[in-house]
Each structure stands twice: as C-alpha cells, then as structure tokens.
Amino acid sequence: MTRVVLAPDSFKGTITAADAAAALAEGWASVEPDAEFVHRPMADGGEGTVAAFAAAVPGAQLVPVTVDGPAGAPIDTAWLLLPPDPAAPGGTAVVDLASTSGIELLDQLRPWDADTTGFGQGIAAALDHGVSRVILGIGSSASTDGGTGMLAALGARFLHAAGAEVARGARGLRDLATVDLDGLRAAPEVRVLTDVNNPLVGPRGAAAVFGPQKGLTSADIEPVDAALARLAELLGLDPALPGSGAAGGTGAALVAWGAVLAPGAGEVATLIGLESAIRGADVVVTGEGSYDGQSGDGKVASFVAALAASAGASPALAAGRIADDADTTLFTACASLTALAGSSEAALADPARWLREAGAALARSR
Questions:
Q1: Mind telling me which residue stretches traverse the membrane in this protein (predicted)?
Q2: Which residues pair with 62 in a beta bridge?
Q3: Helix or strand or coil: residue 70?
Q4: Least confident residue range of 32-41, 131-140, 263-272
C-alpha cells in the first residue's frame, strides 16, 4: 500500500489548499484505490494560512469578525483560535492579511488608498479575546502603506506637520511628519509568517518590487519608496532589514510592534506537524498555482520537496502552470493543470477537475 502525504499550497484565487489536497487524493485513488492518504494542506503566510491551520489542528475554531477591507468597505471574515497549550494558556490566534486586507478582496486596484486597517482590526479582536500568542500571515497584500493602517488599528497615530492624522494608505505616507506610539497596544508573543526577504526600501524594496502588482506606476515608485524610508526613520527601524518589505512594508511595522519575522512555509510545517506526517511516506505531493523560477526561494513547493527528499519519500508536484524557468529537478514527477486541460483558461475554470486528473497522472507515473 502506498502512503501518500498531500501538502499543496492554495492555488491562488481558484481553490484552497484543503480542497486541492482532496481533489489530488480523489484522482490518485482512481488509479490506486488502496493508497493511504494523509492530508496536510500548506501555506506560507499568504492566502490560505488560516485554512491550513484550521484543517490541521484539532479543536481549532474560526471566530467571526467584521473589519474595514482594503476597498474601504466592511467585510465579514474570521480569525482562527487554536487550543491552549502550556506555552500559550490563553490559546493562539492565527490572523492572515489575505482575508482582512488582501488583494483578492479588491474588484479593482487601489494603489494609493488601500491599506492594512482590517488586518489590524483582526489582530485587535484576537487580543480582546485574551490570546497568549499570535501567528500572522502577511502574504497577498493589497497595499503599500508600510503597515500604518494595521498599527493605527492597534492604537498608533500617524500625523502630518499640522498635527492631524494623515490619510490612509500610501497617500498618507507622503504627508507623514510624526508617529505617536503612546497608545499602541502591547504585543504578546507574535510570529510573522512571510515568504519574502525583501528590505523595506531600495531596488528590492516594497515599492519597487511589489508596488506595480498593486497598481503603482513607474512614476509612483520613487515617492512611495522615499515615504517608506521616512516611516522607517520615524519608527527607528533599519530599512534594509530582510523581510521588512513584505506586504507593502507591513513586515517593518510588525517588527516595530515587537514581532519576529519567520519563513512562512517552515513555520506552518512545524505547527501542523508536516515532518512527522511525512515520516514513513512513500510519496509527498505538493503544489501551487504557478511553479516558476521564483518558487525555489522559500515557497511551499520547494520547501516540501526538500523535506520529502530528506525523509526518503518521493516528492511530486501538481501546479496550475509550470514555467520554462522552473527547476523541476526537485521532483520525481510533475503534472501541469494547464497542460492537462489544454489551456490556462480551462484549468482556471475548473481547478478541482484538473487536480483530480493531475492526481491520477502522478499515481500512474509511480
């Protein structure tokens, strides 16, 4: 009997990691009905982080909350409460930026006005509940506000020269003169899951690298970069700190609050017990929406592949698309949904169907 561990990431905007794992298992079972499946849906701090913990941790509870979304309107979402343990007697909260201030929540980009207020409100709700520890996923950000919206929701004030509060989002950063942290809530133990190590400013910084994805034009990047540098100065932060540029500079704001930045995939894997699940497995199937040249730097697929190989299991990949520059040598077998479906449009239209096909294809490749 083949023991198969299913540890995909979500396929961004199309299917959750848990549903992807279920579809892969169904497809594999159509070829090998006697296979044993262990589901460990993964995340790296972006979309699906809360769902990954919810699927893997017994007793986890979703706690509903309404926050100010990145489009400027209220949204109903949830944070996750993990059961108490000796290190966190009040329980652990998992809050992700994707479901509170994420880019997938926008119908159209708002490069100057989207912000992280909702993320901060989600964190505040968890603190009001009395949790002892907070785990934050900060992928899939909609804004480049330097995390000011988040900190403002936790009690900080960001002021222009006349003493009034600046506007939300990157727009307000341009007018920032002083920062008042006197009312900022105290941080418990806070770990931040991120899949990037970019600094806050410069050619690899938040504005230059990620700003265009959120709608900033080439002419916008320099003033936003300068505003982020000013924010770092006011917060007393090193703008070259690796990871501080994550989520439009939210990484920097969280460091200012007292949080610790950590590689997302590794932290999630530890907290959901992935390594012990892989022990004794024959095959470990991972995946993501697009496996490309950037997927080898701390992303879920490459991380899981290395973990599988070190345990003596065969790593396999199912991806929405596999780019020409992708390093597939990490895997003993690969399946592209785009190739199976005949086009990216067909794959995106019914990802569960093509993940079932991918699972079957990977089983036949054994």
A1: none
A2: 80
A3: coil
A4: 263-272
pTM: 0.86
**Residues whose CB is less than 8 angstroms from the CB of residue 219 and which lie 6 or more positions away in sequence, other chains included:** none
**Tokens found for residue 20:** 């992807």
pLDDT at 29: 97
Specify the amino acid at residue 130: G
Q: Would you state the pLDDT for residue 195?
A: 79
Q: How buried is 205 (Cβ within 10 angstroms: 0-12 exposed, 13-18 middle, 19+ buried)?
A: buried
Nearest alpha-carbon partner for 287 in 331, 353, 325, 247: 331
Q: How much is the mean pLDDT over the chain?
A: 94
C-alpha–C-alpha distance, residues 123 and 50, integer Å: 13
**pLDDT tens sequence across 3-23:** 999 999 989 878 989 899 999
Can you give 103-141 as a three-state secondary structure string? HHHCCCCCCCCCCCHHHHHHHHHHHHHCCCEEEEECCCE
CB contact set of 264 (below 8 Å; sequence gap of 6+)? 43, 44, 45, 46, 49, 137, 139, 193, 194, 195, 298
Which candidate, 4, 1, 6, places its Cα nearest to that of 355?
6
Q: Would residue 251 be called left, alpha or beta, if left means φ above 0 and alpha means ψ between -120 and 50 degrees?
A: alpha
| Measured distance CA(210)–CA(20) in Å, rounded | 27
Would the CA dihedral through 212, 215, 217, 221 be positive or negative? negative
The predicted structure's pLDDT at residue 297: 58
Indicate the helix (H) or strand (E) that contains 78. strand 74-82
When pLDDT is cut at 50, 70 and 90, the band that residue 43 belongs to is confident
Whole-number pLDDT of residue 298? 63
Q: Cβ(80)–Cβ(122) under 8 Å?
A: no
Tell me the two tokens of residue 126. Answer: 């968890």
